[in-house]
Amino acid sequence: MLHFSRLKTTAILLTIAVGLLFALPNVLPQSALAYLPSWLASSRVTLGLDLQGGSHILLEVDGSALRKERTEQVRDEIRRVLRDQKIGYSNLALRDTSVSLRLRDPADTQKAVAELRKLAAPVTNALFGNSSGEMDLLVSSGADGAVTVQLSEAGLNARMRSAVEQSIEIIRRRIDQLGTVEPNIQRQGLDRILVQVPGLQDPQRLKNLLGQTAKLSFRMVDQSMSPQQALEGRPPPESEVLQGQDGQPYLVEKQVRVSGEDLVDAQPGFDHNSREPIVSFRFNNNGARRFAATTQDAVGRPFAIVLDNQVISAPVIREPILGGSGQISGSFTVQQANDLAILLRAGALPAPLKVVEERTVGPSLGADSIHAGKVAAYVATALVAVFMIAVYGLFGLFALVALAVHIMLMFSLQSILGATLTMPGIAGVVLTIGMAVDSNVVIFERMRDEAREGRSAISAIDKGFVNALGTILDANITSLATAVILFLMGGSGPVRGFAVTYILGLLTTMFTAYTLTRLMIAYWVKWRRPAKLPI
C-alpha cells in the first residue's frame, strides 16, 4: 500500500495541478483575469441569489385565460364536427368551462353526442405517464335537443400542469438569452413558478420579459372601413379592432396568415436607411411558403404584425417577399429590439403569467453572508488544525496539507461544472472541512492499534491504510447516496446547492484524505525509514 509507481505519482500530482489551475481565477482580482485565457477566466464559482443579490419573482399562470382559450377551442371543434356531419344547431354559447347548444332536430341528439364524444381524450397521469381513466371532456344531452360539452376538472388540471411545464422551459430560454448565469426556475404548487436570477438588479426588465405571452401573428389590415367607423358602429364579422403600439387603432382581419410558431430565428439589428433599431426574423419552410403566398396576393395592401393582440407595425407590402425573412420596425429602443428578439426566439407562453410577488435582493446581504461564511470556515479550519497537530503530530500536518488540497479541489470542481454557490453551499463547505479529516483519524487510529499489537512502524503504517480502506469507503458511499437523494428530491435551490457542495466535498475527500495523505506518508517513510510510529 505504500508503494507508488512513477505513473501513479504523476497522475496524482497532475490532478492537483489541474485543480489549482481552475481554482486560481476565484482568488485573482478582476483586473488580473484579463491576462488569462478566456476559457480559464470564465471558470469561476457562480454565486447564488443570496450571495450576490439579484431579482426574485413569483409568477402565476393565468388559469382563467387558460380555461377561456380551451373553451373557445372546444367551441370551434364542435362547430367543425357538426358542420362535417351536417347536423343543424343553434344557440351555441360559452358558459365558463362548458359549451352549450341546441340541435334543430332533436332526433340528431344521439348521433351528435356520439360524434362530440370523439373529441374527448383520456387524461394522462402526471406521475406515471399512463391514462388515469378520466376524459378531458364530458358530453351530456337534455330535453329538446339540448347538448352540453363540459371541460372536466381532471382535464383542466392536466392542461394547467402542461402549461406550467411549458412555461418553465420558455422562461428558461428567455432568461438564458439575457446572458445571466444559473437562474433558479422551479415550479411551486399547481400553477406557480419561482424565478430567481442572481446578478440581475433590474426586476422591471425581467417582469417585462416574462410578462408578455409573445404570441406573434401576421394578418391583413381590413380596408373595408376605417377603424373609427368600426369602433363607432360594428366591425365586419371576420375582423376586429386592435390597438397599435403607436396608440392608433387598426382594423385587422381575424384570420392569421402566418403564425409566430413558424419562426426559426429573430435577431436585433439596425435599418440600413434610417439606422433605427429593428428585429429581423426568419421563417421555416412552411412559414416561408405561406409568407410568400400572402405577400404575392396582397401587394399594395398593409400587413399587420400583431404581438399579444397589439399591432407593432402595419407596413404596406411593396413587392412579394419570397426569401422567408423580413424585419419588424416600430420605433424601438435598442433594448426593446433586443428584448423582442429574445421573446420571439424563445417562443410564446401557453398562457399569460401574473406577478404574485417580486423583490430585489441587494448585494450587501450577500456580502454579509460571505463574510460570515469566511469567518466560520476560518474558525473551523483553525480548530481542526490545532486538534490534528496536537493529537497526531507530523501525520496531523500531512492531513492538514490534504485538507487544503481538498478545499482547493472542491472549488475547482464547482468552477468547472458551473455550479452555483449559495449560503447553504458555504455551510456544506464548512461541514466538509471537519469531515475531510475523519478518514485520516480512522487511518491514524488503525496505525496505533497495529503498533500496540507489536508491529514495526512501517508495517503498522501499511496495515493502517489497508484496514481503514473498507471503513472509509462504507462511510463515504453511504453519505454520497444520501447527498444524491437530497439533490434529486430537494426541490428548492438552497437545498440542491447544499447537496452539490456536499457531493463534491465527499468526492474530493476520498481522493485527498486517503490517496494524497498516503502518498506523502509513503515518501516520508522512504526518506526517514522510521523505527517508531510518530503518533
Automatic annotation (TrEMBL):
Listed name of the protein: Protein translocase subunit SecD
PANTHER family, per the entry: PROTEIN TRANSLOCASE SUBUNIT SECD, PROTEIN-EXPORT MEMBRANE PROTEIN SEC
Membrane-spanning intervals of the chain: 375-395, 425-444, 465-490, 502-525
Protein's job: Part of the Sec protein translocase complex. Interacts with the SecYEG preprotein conducting channel. SecDF uses the proton motive force (PMF) to complete protein translocation after the ATP-dependent function of SecA.
Signal peptide extent: none
Keyword flag Iron: no
Family affiliation: Belongs to the SecD/SecF family. SecD subfamily.
Membrane topology label: Multi-pass membrane protein
Domain called SecDF P1 head subdomain: residue spans: 240-351
Organism from which the protein derives: Xanthobacter oligotrophicus
Pfam families: Sec_GG, SecD_1st, SecD_SecF_C, SecDF_P1_head
The keyword Protein transport is annotated on this UniProt entry: yes
NCBIfam families: 2A0604s01, secD
Record note on quaternary structure: Forms a complex with SecF. Part of the essential Sec protein translocation apparatus which comprises SecA, SecYEG and auxiliary proteins SecDF-YajC and YidC.
Region Disordered, annotated ranges: 223-244
InterPro entries given in the database record: SecD, SecD/SecF_arch_bac, SecD/SecF_CS, SecD_1st, SecD_SecF_C, SecD_SecF_C_bact, SecDF_P1_head
Keywords, ordered alphabetically: Cell membrane, Membrane, Protein transport, Translocation, Transmembrane, Transmembrane helix, Transport
Residues covered by the Protein translocase subunit SecDF P1 domain: 164-223
Annotated localization: Cell membrane
Superkingdom assignment: Bacteria
